[in-house]
Please model this.
Amino acid sequence: MILLLAILMFACNKEDDSPNVNPSDKLALDSLIATKKHIVIWEQITVKAFARGENLKFEWYTNHGSMVALDSVAVLYWACPSCEGLNIIECTVSNDYGSLSDTVMIQVDPENGL
Model:
């Protein structure tokens, strides 16, 4: 009985040889940065995602305004007259480990402060 207990204690104290990997190294969306967060109608800004991981896929969404991809990590955004107010730009980053989303809010005002 004592021998069995000693074997079990030794087995439980065995060091784990697998490396400790920070989960954020596999998939992280650190931030979304807009060149400006307060714009007027038709003004163009760039929004860029700062993400980490392998085989990242980027998906962009906005509730108002227009966007065109500059590359996978950045978009060019502008708003028309019907987009006045607070607008949301969302980026979802995904890979084999899952997906993460973040948003940035853009205030759109009329031209010349009208």
